[in-house]
């Protein structure tokens, strides 16, 4: 019988587990503390549970923590970790140290359905949703976990396409029984699945980043097929119903492609699209991937683009590029090759 992982369960789910085993109700909080505060790897380590209750728990459950199976280190200090995600599947998570900050880029799916033209994960295709256990394990089993200051749901997959499991993971990250992080430490990135987006905004206080990449709907559709079902104009109108002027931050990600979306008319269309919305733009350098006839704009062009937007009231930054030499930068995550050669890793 396959045992149920405890790691990745919310407090209410743990309460159901102990209730079904006839354990005291307070055992759920004790287990949560062992999982998310003390980060144990076995039920035997849960010393404030009686031997009897540990035995009952072990019959049907396991901690479910699993160390990464591989790691690649960049010259800039970025580390890309490979995690097993079910039978024969893998996901990548990227650890990015930067002075007194350390960010983990977390995956939510094996592959992705969105098929964005510029993204290696999209070219891999979709294989499976990650469970909350597999999402939280990327944090829990990270060798540098105690150094983390921020988590971004910007790895493999579309988080809003796996919303139930993602919301459970976010609850664990931000609840007092879990990691007890401020929601300001967590950002979710999405192409903008409308129904899921509304639910995420209303059920979570974490930051939100929308993948924009073009303010022109027809062009965005060429770059991002999801535009057909989830038009950027409708996404923006939905966002206007919520208040992002306080602690919660709304940002738009914009990869700058040479000769495609990097000129003044696009900057003007961005201003028109986002006028009156409390938000910021993150400009991202494109990292060339095989089989894609797109190039990144040069830094001079990106700087001029940023300065124009900022001077017209739209706060804009250029995101620094990290981990490109190990294919860990934005849009470069893919485990297709690992899954082809999975027998070598197992």
From TrEMBL:
Enzyme class: transferase
Cofactor info, note text: Binds 1 [4Fe-4S] cluster. The cluster is coordinated with 3 cysteines and an exchangeable S-adenosyl-L-methionine.
CDD domains: Radical_SAM
InterPro entries hit by this protein: Aldolase_TIM, Methyltransferase_A, RlmN_N, RNA_MTrfase_RlmN, rRNA_lsu_MTrfase_RlmN/Cfr, rSAM, rSAM_sf
Radical SAM core domain location: 98-325
Active site: 92, 330
Subcellular location: Cytoplasm
Record key words, sorted: 4Fe-4S, Cytoplasm, Disulfide bond, Iron, Iron-sulfur, Metal-binding, Methyltransferase, rRNA processing, S-adenosyl-L-methionine, Transferase, tRNA processing
GO annotations of cellular component type: cytoplasm
Catalytic activity: adenosine(37) in tRNA + 2 reduced [2Fe-2S]-[ferredoxin] + 2 S-adenosyl-L-methionine = 2-methyladenosine(37) in tRNA + 5'-deoxyadenosine + L-methionine + 2 oxidized [2Fe-2S]-[ferredoxin] + S-adenosyl-L-homocysteine; adenosine(2503) in 23S rRNA + 2 reduced [2Fe-2S]-[ferredoxin] + 2 S-adenosyl-L-methionine = 2-methyladenosine(2503) in 23S rRNA + 5'-deoxyadenosine + L-methionine + 2 oxidized [2Fe-2S]-[ferredoxin] + S-adenosyl-L-homocysteine
Predominant location: cytoplasm
Coiled-coil positions: none
EC number: 2.1.1.192
Residue positions binding [4Fe-4S] cluster: 112, 116, 119
A GO biological process held by the record: rRNA base methylation
Annotated residues for binding of S-adenosyl-L-methionine: 157-158, 189, 211-213, 287
Molecular-function GO terms, alphabetical: 4 iron, 4 sulfur cluster binding; metal ion binding; rRNA (adenine(2503)-C2-)-methyltransferase activity; rRNA binding; tRNA (adenine(37)-C2)-methyltransferase activity; tRNA binding
Named cofactor requirement(s): [4Fe-4S] cluster
Other facts noted in the record for this chain: Reaction proceeds by a ping-pong mechanism involving intermediate methylation of a conserved cysteine residue.
Job of this protein: Specifically methylates position 2 of adenine 2503 in 23S rRNA and position 2 of adenine 37 in tRNAs.
Official protein name in the record: Probable dual-specificity RNA methyltransferase RlmN
Gene behind this protein: rlmN
């Amino acid at each position: 019988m396959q045992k149920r992982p405890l790691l990745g369960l919310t407090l209410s789910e743990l309460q159901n587990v102990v209730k079904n085993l006839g354990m005291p109700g307070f055992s759920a909080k004790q287990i949560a503390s062992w999982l998310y505060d003390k980060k144990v790897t076995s039920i035997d380590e849960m010393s404030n549970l009686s031997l009897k209750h540990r035995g009952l728990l072990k019959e049907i459950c396991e901690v479910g923590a699993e160390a990464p199976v591989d790691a690649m280190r960049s010259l800039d200090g970025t580390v890309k970790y490979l995690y097993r995600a079910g039978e024969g599947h893998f996901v990548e998570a990227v650890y990015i140290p930067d002075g007194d900050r350390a960010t983990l880029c977390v995956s939510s799916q094996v592959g992705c359905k969105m098929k964005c033209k510029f993204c290696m994960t999209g070219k891999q295709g979709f294989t499976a949703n990650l469970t909350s256990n597999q999402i939280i394990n990327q944090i829990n089993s990270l060798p540098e976990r105690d150094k983390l200051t921020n988590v971004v749901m910007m790895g493999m997959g579309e988080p809003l396409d796996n919303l139930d499991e993602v919301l459970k993971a976010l609850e664990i990250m931000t609840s007092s029984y879990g990691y007890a992080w401020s929601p300001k430490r967590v950002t979710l990135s999405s192409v903008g699945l409308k129904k899921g987006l509304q639910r995420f905004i209303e059920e979570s206080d974490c930051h939100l980043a929308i993948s924009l990449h073009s303010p022109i709907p027809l062009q965005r559709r060429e770059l991002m097929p999801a535009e057909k079902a989830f038009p950027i104009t409708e996404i923006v109108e939905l966002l206007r119903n919520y208040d992002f002027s306080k602690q919660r931050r709304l940002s738009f990600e914009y990869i700058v492609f040479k000769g495609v979306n990097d000129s003044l008319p696009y900057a003007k269309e961005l201003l028109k699209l986002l006028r009156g919305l409390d938000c910021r733009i993150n400009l991202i350098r494109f990292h060339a991937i095989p089989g894609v006839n797109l190039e990144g704009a040069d830094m001079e062009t990106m700087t001029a683009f940023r300065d124009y937007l900022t001077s017209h009231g739209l706060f804009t930054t250029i995101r620094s590029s990290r981990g490109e030499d190990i294919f860990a930068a934005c849009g470069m995550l893919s485990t297709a090759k690992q899954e082809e050669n999975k027998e070598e890793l197992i």
